[in-house]
Specification:
This protein has about 575 residues and is of the alpha/beta class. The chain folds into 3 domains: about 50 residues, no CATH class; about 325 residues, Spore Coat Polysaccharide Biosynthesis Protein SpsA, Chain A; about 160 residues, no CATH class. The protein contains 13 helices and 30 strands. Helix 6 crosses helix 11. It is globular, with a radius of gyration of 27 Å. The N and C termini lie far apart (about 75 Å).
Length: about 575
């Protein structure tokens, strides 16, 4: 069989279809004629129509470049052309660096962009009831350890808290993909999000390209459909610079709002803290065009991009772990530690004016895809946002060294880099905050503190209603506690001392409107309304009995009061209506 000859069914199909014939000739011109024999010969007319419908949307120049890179025989770098990078000392939360970052937030110079184009293919199996309506969209999967907020919900609540503290709501850019865009738009439309001003959210969509098989031919499924994949998170730059149907560009909208710097991060990093002031301050005080976040690598095989400089011109590169020369990944220094010490966590900051539509793409090989029961080894060609650094002057690219507490990627439900691990890390961080106030928290307990109660300490002197929570508290083994109510009655603190949550118990208090009726003023000024917020008065020495399940959800400006010494047991699922006062004394 001549693999480069169009099969008979394809020849018959093309005879009376000049548009499709032109597309086929273009595909043959880049060398992918074997696509016909491998993937099209068994297709009926409907399958062929599917194939050419998809092919009409493909960027032939991109396919040609992808195929050339895949088949060029290019040998991966040996490693000898790279030298390690140096970083400054690990960033701390306070000081002038953090003050500069907070000033930029208050001035509205910063926007946040989240990469939300990823599917949840490794989260759920077919028929998994836990997937729910978010099945297939990682950003919408339940993520937090007790309340189960999704990645995007948790981020929205963080940005609201940052906005309330700074007195200004920053623009939020959500980059979706063709696979996730519809679901995320629907989620935004139906979700209250604590009255988040949705006009400040900018939705953009990355482009998609077809996968090639390892011979450089277009891979197609049994229905004739091409196997599409996003063009990488570096596609954010072309998406921002793309002209929309109304003639505007997202980047122009950001500039009109006074934005000069964009913080970018992965949706599945539950601990990203994109607006962490010290990192912003490092970027701004350094005068950098781009700043990349780094953590210390733990072991050679860790799945982190590796920072390196080209020996010849000192240009900074991030070597993808799957493509990195082994001599770099495993190199050790005189003291026996990893020579290339710093790993990339993909929380980066770019000066908006330096964004470019095209950055050098990265070739990925041997990615297995199930195409309707047929497993195909494929290649993708993707742009990575950090590759922009290689186009900038080395002196204008900074590296912000941060701690692991700002990096907890979620790639699966169990094991390494799992949702289970991320939830445990977030719970431990929140437990430490209560412990610092005097709480005793036993192993196996899960703790979740809502962003509305104040974010982790960044060196700012914030008047947090959590500042005294935890005094004399005892959270016993295997219990779960979620605190999500920010306000109390005037002159009272929300949470009293001496709370005891027994073994295996759940204590959950949530306010649907923790800030009340949020007002967005001039220049995106953000003002909360404590009078209209849900409130709690948790008295002293309250006891939640072992095995009890206490869940309190406060709507509008409702108030729940739990008097001193109250004992709660059994199962309580209390909804407090707006304007109501509910007093709980015992289960």
């Amino acid at each position: 069989m001549d693999r480069h000859r169009a099969p008979e069914n394809l020849q018959d199909f093309l005879r009376s279809r000049p548009a499709e014939r032109s597309l086929w000739e273009s595909l043959c011109a880049i060398g992918s004629a074997a696509t016909g024999a491998k993937y099209l010969r068994a297709l009926d007319r409907e399958g062929l129509e599917n194939f050419f419908s998809d092919l009409s949307r493909a960027d032939m120049a991109w396919l040609w470049a992808h195929r050339r890179a895949l088949l060029s025989g290019f040998e991966r770098a040996s490693g000898g052309e790279y030298v390690p990078v140096e970083t400054s000392e690990r960033l701390a939360g306070g000081g002038e660096t953090a003050r500069r970052g907070r000033a930029a937030i208050a001035a509205g110079e910063v926007a946040v962009a989240v990469f939300a184009g990823g599917a949840a293919s490794r989260f759920f199996h077919s028929g998994d009831a836990a997937a729910g309506p978010a099945h297939g969209v990682k950003g919408l999967c339940p993520a937090t350890p007790v309340a189960g907020f999704s990645f995007l919900e948790r981020l929205a609540f963080e940005l609201l808290e940052e906005g309330i503290c700074a007195g200004r709501l920053l623009p939020w850019v959500i980059m979706t993909s063709p696979a996730t865009g519809e679901a995320i738009r629907a989620w935004l439309e139906r979700s209250a999000l604590r009255q988040y001003p949705k006009d400040s959210i900018i939705l953009i969509e990355q482009s998609a390209n077809p996968r090639l098989d390892m011979d450089g031919d277009l891979a197609a499924g049994a229905d004739g459909r091409l196997l599409w994949t996003g063009n990488g998170h570096g596609g954010i730059f072309s998406a921002l610079l793309r002209t929309d149907a109304d003639g505007s560009r997202p980047v122009e909208r950001l500039r009109s709002l006074g934005v000069r710097h964009l913080v970018m991060h992965n949706v599945d990093n539950l601990c990203a803290r994109p607006l962490w002031p010290a990192r912003l301050g490092c970027h701004l005080l350094g005068g950098y065009d781009m700043t990349l976040s780094a953590v210390a690598r733990i072991r050679p095989e860790e799945k982190l991009g590796i920072f390196a400089r080209r020996r010849q011109d000192r240009t900074l590169e991030v070597l993808e772990y799957s493509e990195c020369p082994p001599a770099v990944a495993s190199a050790v220094g005189p003291d026996g530690s990893l020579a290339f010490r710093w790993g990339h966590i993909n929380t980066n900051i770019v000066r908006l004016e330096r964004a470019r539509a095209e950055v050098p793409p990265t070739l990925y090989r041997n990615r297995r895809v199930d195409a309707g029961g047929r497993v195909i080894e494929t290649s993708t060609f993707e742009m990575l946002n950090q590759s922009l650094a290689g186009l900038l002057h080395p002196d204008r690219v900074g590296i912000a060294r941060v701690g692991r507490e700002l990096f907890q990627p979620v790639k699966s439900r169990g094991g390494e880099d799992s949702l289970e691990e991320a939830q445990s890390r977030l719970s431990l961080a929140h437990a430490r905050r209560l412990a610092e106030n005097g709480a005793a928290i036993e192993s196996g307990a899960l703790v979740e503190l809502d962003p509305a109660l104040g974010l982790e300490d960044d060196g700012a002197s914030r008047d947090s209603n959590l500042s005294k929570a935890g005094r004399g508290w005892k959270i016993e083994k295997d219990s779960r506690i979620y605190l999500g109510v920010r306000h109390s009655m005037e002159g009272r603190m929300p949470y009293g001392s001496g709370l005891s949550v027994g073994k295996g118990a759940t204590f959950w208090v949530e306010a649907a409107s923790p800030y009340g009726s949020i007002r967005l003023g001039a220049d995106n000024g953000l003002i909360e309304d404590p009078a209209g917020a849900g409130k709690i008065v948790l008295g002293h020495d309250v006891r939640v009995e072992a095995g009890a399940s206490i869940r309190i959800r406060i709507q509008g400006d409702g108030l729940v009061m739990i008097p001193d010494g109250a004992t709660l047991s059994g199962c309580i699922d209390e909804v407090v209506p707006p304007g109501s006062v509910v007093v709980l004394t015992k289960g």
